Amino acid sequence: MRNLLVELAGILALAVSVVHGVLSETKVFPKARIEPEWARRLIRLVWQAGTIAWICLAILLIAAPSMGSEAARNWIIAMSIVTFGAAAVGNAWATRGRHFGWVAMTIVVGLAAGGL
After folding, report:
1. CA distance 115 to 34
2. How many helices and strands (H and E) does the chain possess?
3. Cα angle value 14/19/20 (rounded, 5°)
4. Which end of the chain is more exposed for a tag (fewer CB within 10 A), N or C?
């Protein structure tokens, strides 16, 4: 059961990460007015670096149950909890709770924590 919770956390985290990347490119950045252009490009690349990092953590969560090392498994889960937890708090605070992202990331944190 623990492994199933971790795998589900990884699958949801992967979905959240992909949606984050797609929505930013289709909804956020087309409307954003950021000057100068180099700053717009930098913010966009840093935003997507976060997306890639989340995708990598999601893949590690999915793979964690099949790892031979219990310590590695636990560290992956713990760091995922910290990362997605911080993102959930930041999202909830910045959007005053009006964005669905913090809810999805909080579920990822709960599932991952259940797998420890």
Report:
1. 42
2. 4, 0
3. 95
4. N
Q: Hey, how many other C-beta atoms are within 10 angstroms of the C-beta on 46?
A: 9
- CB 66: neighbour CB atoms within 10 A? 9
* Residues 6 or more apart in contact with residue 48 via CB below 8 angstroms: 21, 24
Of 10, 12, 103, 102, the C-alpha closest to 57 is 10
Report in angstroms the alpha-carbon separations of 46 from 12, 34, 42, 93, 97: 22, 14, 6, 20, 23
CA dist., res. 105 & res. 116, Å (int): 17
Q: What is the pLDDT of residue 69?
A: 93
Cα–Cα distance measured from residue 41 to residue 25, given in angstroms and rounded to the nearest whole number = 12
pLDDT digits (tens, 9 = 90+) for 45-88: 999 999 999 999 999 999 999 998 999 999 999 999 999 999 99
